[in-house]
Amino acid sequence: MLRIVAHGFGAPADVLVCEPAPRVEPEPSGVVVRMRASAINPSDLVSVSGAYSFRIPLPFVPGFEGVGVIDAIDAEVSGLRMGQRVLPLGSAGGWQSFKALPAEWCIPVPDDLSDEQAATAYVNPLTARLILRTLAPSPGMLVAVNAANSAIGRILLRLLDAMNIRSLAIVRSKQAMALLADEPICNVILAGEPLPPLDGGFDAIGGDDGAAMAQAIRSGGALMHYGLLSGRPLPPGLRSVKPFWLRNWVHAASRAELRAAMAEVFDDIRSGLAATTIEACYPLSAYRVALAHNAQASRCGKILFKPQL
Ligand SMILES: NC(=O)c1ccc[n+]([C@@H]2O[C@H](COP(=O)([O-])OP(=O)(O)OC[C@H]3O[C@@H](n4cnc5c(N)ncnc54)[C@H](OP(=O)(O)O)[C@@H]3O)[C@@H](O)[C@H]2O)c1
Questions:
Q1: Domain ranges in the chain?
Q2: Which superkingdom does the taxonomy of this entry point to (predicted)?
């Protein structure tokens, strides 16, 4: 039983350690989930950096998404059973062998989804559906997606294509451009190239790149701003910017709304629209190698922890 723990905030390589984990028991109305696979996402690393130190007490185990099976269950819990495969959502803590959480935050996983697809079903596929719903583009419109080689960028490109919306993919290197060859894209350009007038945009970068996209949006369109990969916020005063943070949506939604949204996402994964490519899986003990692999430019898939490896 292992866990990857941040005892302080800072660079992941400096502050994370892998240590033996004590056995945990379910809280009242809670369960313990034996983790089978957990993703490494930018939001996990941002949390380790200390960006959310006002609401994350130390020490903490990162990992906002993953899949596991129920290993212990409080007697008061109904609607879940021992051995059931679930997504344990609503909190960090995926990067460990066992995660304890309130039963109400467990989303049952359909049998036909692999552990890999289930472990990556939440953060990016759900966000993509929600920000697309908010932007609500119409067929024939032109919508740009930056950091297009990211897991969520690829999902957005496929969802746009399925809705007959023209997409402009923006990447930061020719290598990333080549990696997008299999995705349905109307056009692809390098960051910094001039942008045509856009009906909408999805910005995962912020800073100058996000600002350039915001300035290219036609009157009446909107920029969905959902990431800060540049580490810099959008400059103030841009019109048409709609920020989106999954955590805010999830904690404001009812559990029934969350389950309904995840059912839609599971369908998107089955159809391939929201399927995520997995580049490599590592045991928790190899976390340094896993994080270094995750930091490589032009990855073509997600890195997962699998505690049982
Ligand atoms: N707001 C929310 O609720 C929410 C939810 C989901 C995701 N997100 C955000 O969406 C973004 C992508 O997440 P992901 O899981 O899809 O990422 P990912 O698959 O791990 O890939 C990271 C991507 O970021 C690109 N990248 C890294 N630094 C960059 C920079 N400075 N400028 C441009 N591109 C850069 C990489 O480009 P290369 O391919 O060129 O290496 C790669 O495509 C993150 O910012 C994440 O926080 C936000």
A1: 2-120+276-305, 123-247
A2: Bacteria
SS3 120: coil
3-class DSSP assignment, residue 148 = coil
**Ligand 1 center from residue 42 Cα (angstroms):** 6
Tens-digit pLDDT profile for residues 47-80: 999 988 999 999 999 999 999 999 999 999 999 9
CA of 299 to the centre of ligand 1 (A): 11
Could you tell me the distance, in angstroms and rounded to a whole number, from the CA of residue 46 to the centre of ligand 1?
Answer: 11
Return the best residue to mutate from 152, 251, 296 for the ligand 1 pocket (most ligand atoms within 8 A of CB).
Answer: 152
Q: Provide mean pLDDT across the span 204-218.
A: 97
Q: Which residues line ligand 1 (CB under 6 A)?
A: 41-43, 123-124, 127, 147, 149-152, 171-173, 176, 204-205, 226-227, 229-230, 244-246, 297-298
Mean pLDDT of the chain: 96
Ligand 1 centre distance from Cα of residue 147 (Å): 6
The pLDDT-based confidence of 38 (bands split at 50, 70, 90) is very high
Counting atoms of ligand 1 from 1, which one is nearest the CA of 40? 20
Compute the distance between CA of residue 4 and CA of residue 64 in angstroms, rounded to an integer: 13
Element (DSSP H or E) covering residue 131: helix 123-135
Nearest atom within ligand 1 for CA of residue 46: 47
Give yes or no for a cis peptide into 26 (omega within 30° of 0).
no
Report CA 172 to chain centroid distance, whole Å.
20
Residue 298 reports pLDDT greater than 90 = no
pLDDT of residue 185 exceeding 90 = no
How far, in Å, CA of 162 to CA of 262, rounded? 19
> Looking at domain 123-247, which CATH architecture does it have?
3-Layer(aba) Sandwich (3.40)
List the structure tokens of 107.
């989303």
Task: Assess whether pLDDT exceeds 90 at residue 15.
Answer: yes
